[in-house]
Design brief:
Immunoglobulin-like; mainly beta; 2 domains; about 10% helix; disordered N terminus; single chain; 8-stranded mixed sheet; globular; Glucose Permease (Domain IIA)
């Protein structure tokens, strides 16, 4: 397993180096703790913020992305907040800043920042052959695709509190990967978006289980991914289970890690039976294998 990075810094030092104007003497200094397998494209980042006084609000930015933060104990005000971000597939290598701001009940501002270095990462190219309608969709499915995009945008815009038992995730099926995250995919000779997850070996009818605790926020058919389940794990963290032959859960249903979601299959844009296992923060994908790392949940 790649080693986990655990970085902590007092904001009074880091913020002064990153953005002096944001660190006026009146601001409370925040301690920012950052965990990641590595800072490279396709990797999630767990962020914990600790304040010397309880905060009624906290927010963050990293690489142009908003960081959704919530109190660790579920109560506001709180002196400890947590959230998720990621390094995007197209983020350039080099220095980057994680910035956090907050406010106390009395209106006092708080600020902190952390400088990190993003490593370069290359992804291989994969050539696949599928039915032509999944490469150049016919005109009569355009309205359907637009409806699905709008529905998924609403799903991924959710910000819910994390479940109390959220911990290291487990593989949704026992089979090994047959295609890895981030591959630059070429369907029928036409380049398409990079692979947003893992393809895991699974036979038709194999049980598919939730990788972590959460709430089902999508359970239905999609044009490209076929029968699909999406689980919300809180703070903008989602996992996706696609190409199922059968769905055994309903939207709004709480699930535990290891609970059955459905059966593997070959629905949607596929070359054969398998499970597509994806993970996202908001709408952006990352390598779901990172969620198996227990240090992200310490």
């Amino acid at each position: 397993m790649p080693r986990t990075l655990l970085l902590a810094v007092l904001a009074v030092v880091a913020c002064a180096a990153a953005r002096p104007a944001a660190c006026a003497a009146a601001s409370l200094p925040l301690e920012v703790e950052v965990r990641a397998r590595e800072f490279a494209p396709g990797e999630p980042v767990r962020i914990t913020v600790r304040a010397p006084e309880p905060l009624v609000s906290a927010r963050g930015r990293f690489g142009g992305r908003e960081i959704r933060l919530a109190p660790e104990d579920g109560r506001t005000p709180s002196a400890s907040w947590t959230g998720w971000s990621l390094v995007g597939l197209d983020d350039p290598p080099g220095p980057a800043i994680i910035e956090i701001t907050g406010r106390t009940a009395g209106g006092r501002a708080a600020a902190g920042a952390r400088a990190v270095t993003v490593a370069a990462r290359e992804f291989p190219v994969e050539h696949l052959t599928v039915a032509a309608k999944y490469v150049e969709p016919p005109a009569d499915v355009a309205a359907r695709l637009a409806r699905e995009r709008a529905a998924l945008d609403a799903v991924y815009a959710r910000t819910s509190p994390p479940p109390p038992d959220l911990g290291p995730f487990v593989p949704p099926v026992p089979g090994p990967p047959t295609s890895t995250f981030g591959k630059r995919r070429v369907f029928n000779g036409k380049p398409r978006a990079p692979h947003p997850g893992l393809d895991l070996r699974a036979a038709e009818g194999d049980t598919v289980r939730s990788a972590g605790a959460g709430t089902v926020v999508w359970a239905g058919e999609l044009y490209y991914s076929g029968n699909t389940v999406i689980v919300d794990h809180g703070l903008g963290l989602f996992t996706i289970y696609a190409h199922l032959s059968r769905i055994d859960v309903r939207e709004g249903q709480p699930v535990r890690a290891g609970e059955r979601l459905g059966l593997a299959g070959a629905t949607g844009r596929v070359t054969g039976p398998h499970l597509h296992f994806g993970a996202k923060i908001g709408r952006e994908p990352f390598d779901p294998r990172a969620l198996y790392d227990p240090s992200l949940f310490d």
